Amino acid sequence: MPTPTPTEAALKALDHSMSARVKAGEIAGATWLVHHGERIHVSSAGTFEMNDAGAAMARDTIFRVASITKPVTGVLAMMLVEEGLLTLDGPVDGLLPELANRRVLKRIDGPLDDTVPANGPVTLRQLLTMTFGLGAIMVFPEACPIQLAMREAGIAPSWILPKMSSDTYMQKLGELPHAAHPGEKFLYNNGLDVAGILIERATGERLGALMKARLFEPLGMTDTDFFVPPEKQHRLPPLHGPDFTNGTMDIKAYGPEDGIDFSAPPPLDSGAAGLATTVDDYLAFSRMMMNGGELDGRRYLEPETIEEMTRDQLTPQQKTGPHADMFMEDGGAGWGLGVSVGLKKTRPWLTPGSFGWNGGYGTTAYTDPANGIIGIYFSQQMMTSPEPPATYMDFWTQVYSGA
Question: What's a Pfam family in this record (predicted)?
Answer without folding.
Answer: Beta-lactamase
